[in-house]
Amino acid sequence: MADPNPTPGIHHVTCIAGDPQRNMDFWVETLGLRLVKRSINQDDPGTYHFFFADAEGTPGTSMTFFPWEGMSRGKVGSGQVSRTAFRVPEGSLDYWEDRFDDYGVDYDDRVDRFGETVLPFEDPDGLPVELVETEIPDDDPTVPWTEFVPEESAIRGFHSVTLWLADPQPTEELLETMGLERVGTEEAEGDTPGDERTRFEATGTVGQYVDVLPTIQGGRQGHGTVHHVAFQTPTDDDQAAMRSAIRSRGLSPTQQIDRHWFRSVYVREHGGVLFELATSDPGYDSDEPLDDLGGRLVLPGTFGDRREEIEANLTDVTVPRAEQAEADD
């Protein structure tokens, strides 16, 4: 069997939130990401699915949430994505610390990791998030959204995810099968003393890193935890080849599932983390004009026939707007 084309990196990360308005306010206004899609969980249509990304919803930039209001607080542990990190331009962390002070965001001291400066913080549900200062190349594919945060400080897509695993070796071998290269190991500063963080690098420029840490700490899914991480398999052929390679590792990926804005394959990897493979097309602008992304509740496929019923079961939310925020100050 021929090796699949390597994944360029992370496509999106999907997390669990509580209150949908609080989630919306934080990720749009505080962090300055654009709401590029307001939809529903296609497996649980009584729940929203929010997609926050760069200005155009570029692959590798979208942080998505299921706001399950009735679920309890989760705990990060083995078999989970423990942290999600975003890229920000070099020299912008002073801006972000000042902004976090203004908005009452809990953040920790900066740490150095693989030669880069990292600012750890939490969202309102306790989700561990990080900003990593990095050089943004002139030909970078991301397009900053600047309604709330200036371009020189704006988030520019994913930097990395960190996986907590009881036995890292099978997952590390899977990442190499997916085309990521082991590039280094160092002591995991800010984690359990003595632990080692191993970094794997994909071929793209956005969301290119996956870090792996060993831990037996127990966790549970709930508010403030990651539901799954999706990797880019840009075309159907890429995805089919990657699916076959994953099956060769003794895993059982699903058949392709149409998620309307991309086509997906899911697999629970050896350590318990739910991986997704996602195509690049049709994209978030396939059913809304680029200028109007996130402007309405989008109900894909046959869900559109149930709009009245679905809307009646969803909490009303308001998308933050800069002009309104300025008027309220």
From TrEMBL:
It comes from Halosimplex carlsbadense 2-9-1. The lineage of its organism: Archaea, Methanobacteriati, Methanobacteriota, Stenosarchaea group, Halobacteria. It comes from the Archaea. Pfam families: Glyoxalase. InterPro entries: Extradiol_RC_dioxygenase (IPR052537), Glyas_Bleomycin-R_OHBP_Dase (IPR029068), Glyas_Fos-R_dOase_dom (IPR004360), VOC_core (IPR037523). Residues 9-134, 157-280 form the VOC domain. SUPFAM superfamilies: Glyoxalase/Bleomycin resistance protein/Dihydroxybiphenyl dioxygenase. Residues 309-329 are annotated as: Disordered. This is Dioxgenase.
